[in-house]
TrEMBL record:
Family annotation (InterPro entries): Asp/Glu-ADT_sf_sub_c (IPR036113), GatC (IPR003837)
Residue runs in coiled coils: none
Gene3D superfamilies reported for this sequence: Glu-tRNAGln amidotransferase C subunit, N-terminal domain (1.10.20.60)
NCBIfam families, per database record: gatC
Organism: Actibacterium mucosum KCTC 23349
UniProt-recorded name of the protein: Aspartyl/glutamyl-tRNA(Asn/Gln) amidotransferase subunit C
Domain of life: Bacteria
Length: 95
């Protein structure tokens, strides 16, 4: 598939990219090269290939899900700039 100068101008407009008239032929050529490469990718046989989310197989680090003793309310609230009656105090934002 080939991209002409009018299509390149329209794509630049839709992408909100300012392209000079003299640069439109180069942009059209680059867009045509991209589409040619995509057509080549469509020719690759991917039957039986599992989809992947990354090129390197890795698992996210996980922590053990265990119950802790908790009851750190006073320590947590000691970091707050304003705490009242066991809660964080924040300025009123709705009248």
């Amino acid at each position: 598939m080939s991209i002409d100068i009018d299509t390149a101008r329209r794509v630049a407009h839709l992408a909100r990219i300012a392209v000079d008239e003299k640069d439109l032929p180069a942009l059209a050529g680059e867009l045509s090269n991209i589409l040619t490469f995509m057509e080549q990718l469509n020719e690759v046989d991917v039957e039986g290939v599992a989809p992947m989310t990354s090129v390197t197989p890795m698992r996210l680090k996980r922590r053990e899900d265990k119950v802790t003793d908790g009851d750190y309310q006073e320590q947590i609230l000691s970091n707050a700039p304003d705490a009242r009656e066991g809660f964080f105090a924040v300025p009123k934002v709705v009248e």
